[in-house]
Design brief:
The protein has 242 residues and is of the alpha+beta class. The protein is built from three helices and 13 strands. The strands form three sheets. Strands 1-12-11-10-5-7 form a six-stranded antiparallel beta sheet, with no helix packed on it. A five-stranded antiparallel beta sheet has the order 2-3-4-8-9, with no helix packed on it. Strands 6-13 form a two-stranded antiparallel ribbon.
Length: 242
């Protein structure tokens, strides 16, 4: 009969290798625990709000829905002159423009490095348009008789600068002013594209959100953005065509 099998004695692990393995396990465990403890980074997100508000009393715009009015759009009268203005309602907030509110196009970026104005028109806000009637009548200013144009905003959330936009239409002689939507970028100091509803996660625009849509061709600015710019333009055109 064969004799009992002899078991090979276990080879002792080299002490230097043992120390390296122990150090590796400790480092890996620390890294795992550390990764679990670190909060996930905030994802860029455009928050869009669809509206269809006609100006009868000042329109309040609360971009981030925190219960604080960030901007308001309203009228002020000067004898024979009617002023349409947008007014920042919080110190540090401002409207893109230089004395008058810039009347932006779909696909134009709003962000750092631009000029912004605040309560610059006789303390009543930033001028959008005027209607003058005395013997003759005329409308003038960047926002006189426009459809689906964009206000660019800079505003503060907990002391940090964010950017946003609002889409507004103004009929001739300022007879009707309509706010049809607004949005802001949740990441501080991050550029937002007027009319752009993506970036992380975003709500989508509905055709009913847009009042009396006006067809627009691709601008040189959008073409310079390449495929991304063309995508923005085509999305807007698809909406307007429905």
């Amino acid at each position: 009969m064969p004799g009992p099998k002899m078991l090979r004695p276990k080879s002792p692990i080299n002490s230097s290798l043992d120390k390296q393995l122990t150090a590796y396990v400790a480092a890996a465990s620390a890294a795992f625990i550390g990764s679990m403890a670190v909060a996930p980074s905030a994802e860029a997100k455009v928050v869009y709000t669809a509206t269809n508000v006609i100006l009868t009393t000042p329109i309040a715009i609360d971009l981030n829905h925190d219960g604080i009015t960030d901007f308001s759009i309203g009228f002020a009268g000067y004898q024979h002159d009617l002023l349409l203005a947008v007014a920042p309602q919080v110190a540090g907030n401002a409207v893109r423009g230089n004395g008058s509110a810039a009347c932006g196009f779909f696909g134009v970026p709003v962000g750092p490095g631009e000029k912004f104005a605040t309560n610059s028109y006789f303390g009543n806000g930033v001028r959008m348009a005027n209607f003058y009637a005395y013997g003759i009548s005329q409308s003038y200013g960047p926002w006189a008789n426009v459809t689906n144009r964009y206000l660019g905003f800079k505003f503060l959330i907990h002391g940090q600068v964010h950017y946003g936009w609002a889409r507004v239409s103004v009929t001739n002689e300022l007879r009707t002013v309509v706010l049809t939507g607004y949005a802001y970028e949740t990441t501080p100091n991050t550029t937002i594209i007027e009319g752009h509803l993506s970036g992380g996660t975003a709500e989508s625009i509905a055709p009913s959100d847009v009042l009396a849509p006006a067809q627009r061709s691709a601008t040189l600015g959008m073409l310079a953005r390449g495929a991304d710019g063309l995508t923005l333009w085509r999305r807007e055109e698809d909406v307007l065509a429905r």
